[in-house]
């Protein structure tokens, strides 16, 4: 079967954080609601009623309340959002043989070939209904021949919508849409394209690929393909077992707690940076300890999805304190992050101030330029 004959469904939970809060408190339904930090924080999520006033994610809270002063503001509960994300994942995993968890609230399912046994559009509709029935969360979906079209179409029919883009209609579907609707076209690229007189995807599709390549490099060639509705990106099967880990075997067995804590901080920061570099968050932390007699013990804990060092460090320290109970010499310490999900720091927006987010971004920028060890916490020295 050719790639362009695939059947790909993109499912996106509507205003996920807000929907969870409305489940917990029905009084929030139909009202402007903002999930975010305090006065110095930023907006993590907002209801469609708040969006009507111009409020959007990552906006400073002061600006959001200026635009929508009558909005209800709540801090949010990261643990609840992670739990509901896992519930939806379980429903999809039980119904679909292959799916990709693209973020905490976004999924792709590959239903290619299912029409031989079952009506694919009907199955998609039933899956949407099942997710709502078993979790209470509304979801929007689009069925198309590739991930690109299904994602764009989903965004076009939100909230609580559904649509099908038939095979062969990809290019005509995209044609009238504004260039900003195309994934990978950010503000900078959109400005450059509009300066070239390109306002719609139709116009973009008519520009020779060689010209776009000369102007935007490899991204220009990909833009040309996407504007013509072509996307061969596969659905990557979701696996809870994917992980990032590191461990250290010491030259000399040790009982120096201060040294062990420093090593734990250093290793956690190291793979925390790797996590953010891969644009992922973790939902499970494991600490491993090997004593001098080669006895090896581990402890793990499920946590709200995060990539924040201060959360990961606290969790790792708590696990280590529970593990190290023999007062014997230690030969090895290791740490692993698993249950990895694509996502970015905005998942923790409601938990931190704008300054904290900017601090992480600045630190990671330095590490990208000069190496992961360029900036470390003092206690890791």
Fold and architecture overview:
With 381 residues, this protein is an alpha+beta fold. It folds into three domains: 1-163, Reverse transcriptase/Diguanylate cyclase domain (Alpha-Beta Plaits, 2-Layer Sandwich); 172-227, DNA polymerase, domain 1; 243-380, 2-Layer Sandwich (Dna Ligase, domain 1), CATH 3.30.1490. The chain contains 14 helices and twelve strands. It has helices spanning 16-24, 48-51, 61-67, 78-95, 120-135, 147-156, 170-174, 187-195, 201-206, 209-216, 218-227, 257-277, 309-323, 354-370, and strands at residues 8-13, 33-36, 43-46, 72-74, 99-103, 106-110, 139-144, 162-164, 243-254, 280-291, 296-306, 330-342. The chain has a five-stranded mixed sheet with strand order 5-6-1-7-8, with helices on both faces. The chain has a four-stranded antiparallel sheet with strand order 9-12-10-11. Helix 12 (257-277) packs antiparallel against helix 13.
SSE topology:
Layout: E1 8-13, H1 16-24, E2 33-36, E3 43-46, H2 48-51, H3 61-67, E4 72-74, H4 78-95, E5 99-103, E6 106-110, H5 120-135, E7 139-144, H6 147-156, E8 162-164, H7 170-174, H8 187-195, H9 201-206, H10 209-216, H11 218-227, E9 243-254, H12 257-277, E10 280-291, E11 296-306, H13 309-323, E12 330-342, H14 354-370
Parallel strand pairs: 2-4, 7-8
Antiparallel strand pairs: 1-6, 1-7, 2-3, 5-6, 9-12, 10-11, 10-12
Helix pairs in contact: 4-5, 10-11, 12-13
Q: Given this structure, which CATH class of the largest domain is correct?
A: Alpha Beta
Distance between the termini: 56 Å
CATH superfamily of the largest domain: Reverse transcriptase/Diguanylate cyclase domain
Q: What is the CATH topology assignment of the largest domain?
A: Alpha-Beta Plaits
* Main sheet characteristics: 5 strands, mixed
Mean of all residue-level pLDDT scores: 87
């Amino acid at each position: 079967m050719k790639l362009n004959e695939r059947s790909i469904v993109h499912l996106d939970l509507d205003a996920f954080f807000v929907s969870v809060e409305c489940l917990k408190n029905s009084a929030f339904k139909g009202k402007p609601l903002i999930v975010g930090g305090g006065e110095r924080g930023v907006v993590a999520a907002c209801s469609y009623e708040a969006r009507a006033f111009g409020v959007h994610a990552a906006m400073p809270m002061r600006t959001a309340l200026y635009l929508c002063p009558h909005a209800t503001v709540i801090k949010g509960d990261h643990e609840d959002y992670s739990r509901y994300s896992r519930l939806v994942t379980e429903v999809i995993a039980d119904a679909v043989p292959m799916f990709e968890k693209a973020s905490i609230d976004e999924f792709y399912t590959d239903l290619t070939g299912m029409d031989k046994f079952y009506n694919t559009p009907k199955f998609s509709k039933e899956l949407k209904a099942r997710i709502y029935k078993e979790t209470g969360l509304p979801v929007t979906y689009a069925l198309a021949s590739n991930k690109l079209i299904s994602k764009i179409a989903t965004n076009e029919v939100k909230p609580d919508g559904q649509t099908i883009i038939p095979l062969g209609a990809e290019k005509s579907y995209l044609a009238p849409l504004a260039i900003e609707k195309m994934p990978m076209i950010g503000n900078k690229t959109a400005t450059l394209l509009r300066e070239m007189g390109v306002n719609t995807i139709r116009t973009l599709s008519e520009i020779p690929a060689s010209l776009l390549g000369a102007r935007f490099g490899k991204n220009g060639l990909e833009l040309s393909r996407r504007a013509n509705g072509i996307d061969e990106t596969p659905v990557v099967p979701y696996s809870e077992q994917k992980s990032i880990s590191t461990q250290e075997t010491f030259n000399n067995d040790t009982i120096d707690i201060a040294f062990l804590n420093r090593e734990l901080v250093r290793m956690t920061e190291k793979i925390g940076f790797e996590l953010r570099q891969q644009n992922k968050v973790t939902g499970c932390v494991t600490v491993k300890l090997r004593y001098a007699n080669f006895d090896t013990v581990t402890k793990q804990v499920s946590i709200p999805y995060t990539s924040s060092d201060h959360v990961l460090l606290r969790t790792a320290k708590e696990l280590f304190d529970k593990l190290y109970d023999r007062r014997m010499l230690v030969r090895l310490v290791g740490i692993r992050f698993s249950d990895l999900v694509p996502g970015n720091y905005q998942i923790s927006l409601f938990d931190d101030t704008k300054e904290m987010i900017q601090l992480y971004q600045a630190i990671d920028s330095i590490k990208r330029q000069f190496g992961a060890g360029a900036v470390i916490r003092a206690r890791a020295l």
